[in-house]
Structures are given as structure tokens and as C-alpha cells.
Amino acid sequence: MLTGEAAEPPTGAARMTSYHAELAWVDGRPQADVAIGVEGDRFAFVTPGAPPPAGATRLPGLTLPGLADTHSHAFHRALRGRTHQGLGTFWAWRRRMYQVAQRLQPDTYLALATAIYAELALAGWVRNLPDGTVEVYAQGAVEAVAALRGWLRTGPPGAKVAQVQCREAAATEGLTGFEVRR
Questions:
Q1: % of residues, the chain, pLDDT over 70
Q2: Which H or E element spans position 57?
């Protein structure tokens, strides 16, 4: 979901691509005259009720945010590490996929799709510190970071989480994917 910002579009930004949507889905509903700025692969601003930025491309009709392909990613995540027995053929994968599909219920699929969304919407790293604590740096969509914070409070199966401390930090440019740091 696009979230509207009250701030004015930045001036003098390097390599900014601007759009002006007749209507755009922002804050859970269609809104008129939405100025959109994109720097690289990130939204720089989304401002409903704004005049078109200079040189903006006009987007007629209703503009919707891009939707992540969580359906196929969900099956791949559910199958991760479970299809490499034997030869790991397409047919073994397919058989296993149908076994997973038969066991999925709406609530378990929602949890799986939520995890996929978080994986697609987050970038960052995790590492173990010498004192035994775990440090996580994550950036991304507000909803994805909030979901990660919630998961960190319980951790993976068998984990004993004693304490979680969260703080805001500056975003790191060019960070993509999630990695384990040593």
C-alpha cells in the first residue's frame, strides 16, 4: 500500500523520475491528483492532492501499487530444503508441492504469505555477537519491519528470547536482500 506523505517533493534530487496520477491507491483508498517521485528503485515521495511535478509523466485512470508475487514464493518457501532428497527432480518437487498444498489452511497460508511479504519487503543483516546476543539490522516497508519486530519477540521454534531492544537507525543505501554476517 502506498502511504501518503505531507512533505513537499524534494527539489534538486539526482535522477528523480516524476509521475502524476489522476487517481492512486494511497492510505487504503483512491485519492486524486497524486504526485509520485521515484529515485532508483525507491519511492521518494507520494503526495495526494498535489499539482504535477515539472516534467512528470501523466498516469491516467487508477494507479495501483505493485503487488508482490507471494503466491509462488509461498510454495517455494514452504518447500525450502524439502525437495532435494534423491535426485531432486521436477517430479519430486511437484509431488512435494501438492503435499504441502493439501495441508495448507487459510490461517497457515496467511502466516506463510506474511513471511514471504516480509522477505520481499525487507533488506538487512543479522549476526551473533560475542556476548551471545543477536543483532539485526532491517529496513523496508513499515508493515514488514513491524512484522519482523513481532517475530523477533518469539524467535524461531525452540528459541528463548529474553529481551528485544529496537531503535531507529538511518537507512543504508544500496542494501538489498537479507544476509548473515559473521
A1: 73
A2: strand 57-63
